[in-house]
Automatic annotation (TrEMBL):
Originating organism: Leptospira ellinghausenii
The Thioredoxin domain, residue ranges: 17-185
SS bond partners: 64-68
Family: Belongs to the SCO1/2 family.
InterPro entries: SCO1/SenC (IPR003782), Thioredoxin-like_sf (IPR036249), Thioredoxin_domain (IPR013766)
Entry keyword Disulfide bond: yes
Lineage: Bacteria, Pseudomonadati, Spirochaetota, Spirochaetia, Leptospirales
Listed name of the protein: SCO1/SenC family protein
Presence of keyword Metal-binding: yes
Length: 191
């Protein structure tokens, strides 16, 4: 009897750990959200106009030597196994933090090299600063003026364009794929 109770408790504990460890927390966060602005081409940008229920917003620049390409490669790897329908449920939005060197066209080509269903934007410096503040993103030009130290979060927006999760660059690709799948299903509603 004692062995059966011990075995039952062990199985219960295993499944609780397994279930809790795989859960994705999707809390509404007070930063980020919808962007309404004019990019450098004169195009009005409004995230609410995108059809995809999930947006992954990433701030970076095309000359970035490490974090930007690594993060975009991780998103690609995390979503390569998605079905065609699942791939239509999210879009990566790359916002340049280097408007002096990046155009909207360059930013879009850069991000689409990794993820076809993505778009890049470059705004004037004033708008870029406003968006960085809205998203609480850290950016600082290096002393040589050629590079930027910057935060590397993926801001995950739901269909109402509320920020529901911050994915760190150190998170595994499973966090990205599980978050997209959870938010793109009807089981998660925005408050």
């Amino acid at each position: 009897m004692k062995n059966i109770l011990t075995l039952s408790f062990t199985i219960f504990l295993f499944f609780n750990i397994l279930y809790c460890g795989s859960a994705i927390e999707l809390t509404e966060l007070p930063i980020g959200g919808n962007i309404e602005a004019m990019d450098k081409t004169g195009t009005k940008v409004n995230f609410k106009n995108f059809q995809e229920p999930v947006l992954l917003v990433f701030f970076g620049y095309t000359y970035c030597p490490d974090f930007c390409p690594n993060t975009l490669a991780k998103i690609k790897s995390a979503t390569d196994h998605f079905s065609e329908l699942e791939k239509k449920n999210f879009r990566v939005v790359f916002v340049s933090i280097d408007p002096e060197r990046d155009s909207t066209e360059t930013a879009t080509k850069y991000v689409q090299f990794y993820i076809p269903n993505s778009i890049g934007y470059s705004f004037d410096q004033s708008t870029t600063n406003r968006l960085l503040k809205q998203y609480a993103a850290y950016v600082e030009k290096t002393k040589d003026g050629l590079a930027f130290d910057h935060s590397t979060y993926l801001y995950v927006l739901d269909s109402q364009r509320k920020t529901r999760k911050l994915i760190k660059s150190t998170d595994g690709k499973e966090v990205i794929s599980k978050t997209i799948l959870a938010l793109s299903s009807n089981s998660v509603q925005s408050k």
